[in-house]
């Protein structure tokens, strides 16, 4: 899960940078960030649902806030798609 989070965060940071520069790659980078976020959210949901309740609770506690923060940031970044 840490690797998925790191990948999603990296894609988000790249998308932010390209969006700020208004590069021709910005839209594709935002799409890549969304795709990585979906992978992360799916893995997170599976880890919480399919694990022992104590493990699921620990995953929720440790990772849940970071997933929500990244999701919020990607949602905000997606507003740039409407501006393009």
Principal-axes geometry comes out as elongated
* Proportion in β-strands: under 5%
Secondary structure category: mainly alpha
Q: Report the biggest beta sheet as strand number plus sense, adding barrel if it closes.
A: none
Quaternary structure state of the chains depicted: single chain
Query: In total, how many beta strands?
Result: 0
Distance between the termini: 32 Å
Average pLDDT, rounded to a whole number, is 92
Summarize the helix and strand pattern as letters: HHHH
Specify Rg, calculated over alpha carbons.
14 Å
Helical percentage: over 70%
The parts where pLDDT drops under 50 for at least 5 residues are none
Quickly count the helices: 4
Topology, element by element:
Blueprint: H1 2-21, H2 26-50, H3 53-77, H4 79-83
Helix pairs in contact: 1-2, 1-3, 2-3
Describe this structure in words.
This protein has 84 residues and is mostly helical. 89% of the residues lie in helices and 0% in strands. 20% of the residues are buried.
Keywords:
4 helices, 84 residues
Describe what is shown at a glance:
The protein has 84 residues and is an all-alpha fold.
